Amino acid sequence: MSRPIEVPLAPECSACIVSSLKTMIPLLTAEPNEQFEMFRLAYKRISEGYDKGLTPVVLSISLYQELYTRAGVEDPYKQIKYESTKAALKTLPLIEERLRGLEGKEALDASLAAAITGNVIDFNTAAHSPDLDRLVETFDEIRGEGFHIDDTEALWSSLTSRTGDLMYLADNAGEVLFDIPLVRLIRSLGWRVIYVVKGKPMINDATREDTTGTELETLADIIDTGGWAHGVPMEWVSREFLDAVRSADIVISKGQANIETFPAIQQQTGVETYYVTRAKCPHISAAIGTEAGTNVVMRRTGHVVPK
Length: 307
Fold this sequence. Notes:
Strand content: 5-15%
Oligomer: single chain
Distance between the termini: 12 Å
Helix content: 40-55%
CATH topology of the largest domain: Rossmann fold
Number of domains: 2
């Protein structure tokens, strides 16, 4: 049994949301007066969210949906996603060269480090600015640092002691390419992989378009959450996605938004889940028992024990 992961609204969440808006709103409109109105609306919604005691993820998703709708823009991060994918395509062969010849548990650890390298491509966390020009160096640093929360032995044991369906919850565009070595390794161990992207564009999260033409199309069955949201909040995902979770034997969940949202689903299904991320937000880091700037491979299994 596992303890619940809870990320309640904290005062610093407002600063993080406002920081994200400094990137988002200029992408939604170049008109200064309309930008002012969007910021004014955002401050109002943040205040209302605190009054209602909303979770950070529900508050931010509701606000982002309203701003996207007001602007009439479907994918404002499209260029950022393109640049992220371009950087990933340039970097991935160099990382794969470092993976060549590795076997067994060492190959798993290195593939997880590659996946976490992709997780630094995050444009929605305050005080975090991804450097797309030093992703190889980031991979080397992660390999040297290791995992502060390290359940890789349990993951390796599960992957090598049986086979079945493994659901892989993707995170950001560009990052998906760094998932390929891990997905390839899991497939080589006899597992079927269901790779999950978002139903509609939200910030720089990956959608089906971001996997088109990649090796993921041959390695995995690609489905989407059915939701217009970052993460997988139960109130926004589809019944088909939830049915797929219930059919999965293992889930690998990438990124911070999935740490905020998937535990509610994991609590209901009891599916063995591994949260893989670079901890960036201090608030989320504290919720899982680590510090910002650390690398995480964290196991949760069974139905959650209430506090």
